[in-house]
Automatic annotation (TrEMBL):
This is WD40 repeat protein. Gene3D superfamilies: YVTN repeat-like/Quinoprotein amine dehydrogenase. WD repeats lie at residues 16-60, 150-180, 275-298, 300-342, 344-388, 390-434, 436-480. It comes from the Bacteria.
Amino acid sequence: MGREHLTEPGVPLSISPPHRGPVTALTVVPHVDGRTLLVSGSSDGGVRRWDAVTGEALDEPLGGRGWVWSLAAATADDERAVVVTGFQDGRLVRWDAATGRRSAETPRTGWVRSVVTARLNGRTVVFSGSDDGDVRRWDAVTGLPVGDPLTHHTGPVRALAVVGSVLFSASDDGDVRRWDPETGHLGDPLTGHAAAVLSLVPVVLPDGRALLVGGCRDGGVVRWDAETGLPVGLPLVGHRGPVRSVAATGLDGRALLGGPVRLVAATGPGDGRVLVFSGSDDGDVRRWDAATGEAVGDPLTGHTRRVASLAITESAGRPLLVSAGDTTVRRWDMDTGRQVGEPLVGHTDEVCAVAAFGPLDGRTLLISGGKDHSVRRWDADTGKQVGEALLGHTETVTCVSAFHLADGRAVIAAGSQDHTIRLWDAVTGQSVGHPLTGHTNYVRSLAAVRLRDRRTLLASVAYDNKVLRWDVETGAPVGEPITGVRGPMAAVTLDDGRALLACLEKKSVLRRWDADTGQRVGGPMEGHSASCRVTALGAARVNGRAVFVSVGRDGTVLRWDAETGRRVGEPIRCDGEVATMAVCGGADGPLVIATGANPEVGITVRRVTR
């Protein structure tokens, strides 16, 4: 077959009529009567063949029973192209790719999650992985078992790949294993991944090296040397959701992407490089250089706006999670995970920040700020806006906070891309004092603390790499700027009355400062990967101890004793990239950590008891 373009880059290949259900599996079959076929499987149980160039359906769906979990293409012993389908009911069915006729069927096992084919001793063998954790081998012509099942995994086998004379399997139990496909001998496990591997694809580089590429539940893409089983470089990060399935097109460097099918495809771009295309639940398709691991170009996006900010509070006696994203603020019951009431609508552009404050006049207020330059107050119980929008900023409101002064007054503070911080009376909505100026770049984060002399101190950190401190009642600066730091920022008050600030000295290293004196406290707080930026910081009191909580872009959450700066407990792993976080704790209850990013990954709430 010549080097035909399936479609122009970035333009989807349209195939019609579609399946009656979501497309769940996809494979490419080259060289079938002079053309390349695309074969798709669906939750409706149908298997369809399409002309990969024109998108034309070749016939009616090939009938099946139950969800199609997996597809693989192979060349049978008589050189015919065949397609093997794994169904939800545990059957493997072989079809003639040219005619669509069913030619073999295996006995039923557990749900068949993964299928791959290879040539062994002159015959085509089908390998299947199922929910019972076993990998089975079948003769592609007769449908009879070849040897005993390969047993080791304790969870569903999500992915299989054959590279040379080695079979690789990946399971929900977290293991990626190597097998001798002929003898069934189990090799050493592969390492380098932090979460279960959901997809595998073999890649051959221009220098002849063979790699195995895996898509992970945490959104990472991992490369291994197929011969040694050792990791190649660091995981490729950027996705915010699981990378679930794999397919290699091998057609002029184009990746075939269709509907809800998630793909990882390794193809040649025509300039000597091999690219890995990774597709995730986050809606993105990302491109990587398979040899270097470097990202190639921008992600191909298809998802809606991310969750920009989170807050935790209590309303009507129940714990409430508050999220900001798009132009709305939403409330969630943290016990049930259900949304509470209708979205809070009033902002005319994206909402970038949210905070909770109360009780105030018998109710809890939610405070939001956004790209429409406004700050708004909402009743947490009813969802109704309280009063008029608070105006004054001339650019996007990037952060909000609310707190009580020593005399009982409640104040709202908001930082903006206009480099200023503005204050309002939380009850009346009246402006308090003059704007606080001094930053020379966007204000990133705010934190308020009560000092020993009962003054309320407001700290701000901006993209000018400075922390400024203010006496809220007078509007006067407190001390000299703390320099060489960056956001985010959090603050706590210790048992001895000292107030501490925590923010970043480097992108992955935290430092503490005395909020009153501006002096550095203790040494660096190191624990996040040096290559991973900390994206959010929080603070809480848990079982009588003040803790800082930090989360990296890779989804790793670390807890720190605020007084000593030492790590507390084991790292907590979140799926995918995390952009925002909210934390709360109680005297006897668990530490509650909520993280969020894009809507496909969703908002995750964890209750940590140790």
